[in-house]
């Protein structure tokens, strides 16, 4: 019988049943493993892997035809040489994270605009100070760099909260979502940075996004700008960002992704001024909704796969997303 | 000439001009003082005071006919005996704070649901842990106790973020705002508490709101409930709330208002578990928008006053709001 290996930790009995029912309907048997916990032997029997399989284990999956990664970012999985065959189809779970990551972006943006880390320090000292200047999402000028599922989910929420102007920036510069007041192609990013108060970065790590927020572009941001990154740490010249923050040349930043991860204890990012650092939690899979959508998307694509239809979430490995 | 005393710190040249132009049109001259900085002599010459006049100074304002308080909460100003005459009209600035306070509520709610204080502790220890269970505003059951300007501004934002069910609770149980899925009168509060995941309190301090979140009602909340209070500290049995938090009987609380303020250094609230404490900052006047609206509302009511029309923001001193 054709076989699927599921390697994920969030498979509650309900989600397990949903996978099993869909697999049975499509003529597959399923074995369940933990996230990243590929069995030491027998990986060659699986035609499909869903969840997270460590890249170094993939080569042993000699029967693999489709790997559905449970994450949205698949930069570690794009290299053809990881696979036993170059024909392995890769799909991701982009679409499952827009909700939770957009709530993270909203939270850290409000924390920075409303000076929350400083108020938390004040409270830690048991002092009662209430007069630090604050700002609002209402009326603010926002640039969303990477106008995919995550960026657009945030743009819709910011719009609903009364953001003054939202500019989306994507490779093509096209995106029909009405949350954006304006769309720009990536090569015109420089023109919008000087008027950006909130720069939200939700980019995959691919050749032309690595280092996209360069030292020169950081210098184009106004003094009251804040930068939020939830995509990949490689998108930012981290050294230049730390310098700008420490010198007060921009108002603040919230980084959920950094280089490297985990961040070594002696790294200067830990003590950078006006930096709200989080340990890659924005897409935390503990949120039931995220996992439900994740499983739903896999099951839909499993039906597509079994019927010979194109996968909804197939990744172009050359493009990287 | 009839005279107005403005006692506020946020009077930028533009806002000052707006007040002066409106006053001139209405036949008034204006003197400007700082917030709470009533002049030692001559207070009797003012027919109108706008901003914040310390209650102990009001008695000297023997010519006072209208006091427009720049804050929304006027519990310190309701007592007739504060004034030289019981006929002094009191108005407040309810309506100026909905935007900024609703952004505060959103921020602290997300921080509690997403375990942000714990992640901040982890980051402070330079550790890299990403797997604490989180929750979302999306799909959550929210009760808004006090369905006025502030509560309703929050309800609209929560609705836009996909809240599952929003129940408003007000004295009358009436409120036409479509953000609420359901409205209840205050006396039926008990019936909605057991199914409340997020309890937002935005009540004025009046006789029947003092102690409204009693020990018995805290016991009705489910274990995963969080409580957010931005109204007045008196609305909660603080002792009972601290016990519930320390015992883990509810999931968390965010208090921007407490009893007393400022909180003494040795008070047990500072070290209560899962409590996000802020020093009464949610309605911080540093936000330009809040101050603009504040001045606009005063100027509109000044025109009403001069024309003999009823004031839009008149407070019923007996009712307290």
Automatic annotation (TrEMBL), chains A, B:
SUPFAM superfamilies in the cross-refs: Formate/glycerate dehydrogenase catalytic domain-like, NAD(P)-binding Rossmann-fold domains
Q: Which Gene3D superfamilies match?
A: NAD(P)-binding Rossmann-like Domain
Tell me which UniProt keywords the record has, alphabetically: NAD, Oxidoreductase
Q: Does the keyword NAD apply?
A: yes
What is this protein identified as?
D-2-hydroxyacid dehydrogenase
CDD domains listed in its UniProt record = 2-Hacid_dh_1
Q: Which domain of life is it from?
A: Bacteria
Spell out the molecular function terms from Gene Ontology: NAD binding; oxidoreductase activity
Cross-referenced Pfam families, in alphabetical order?
2-Hacid_dh_C
Q: Which InterPro entries match?
A: D-isomer_DH_NAD-bd, NAD(P)-bd_dom_sf
**UniProt domain D-isomer specific 2-hydroxyacid dehydrogenase NAD-binding: residue ranges:** 107-282
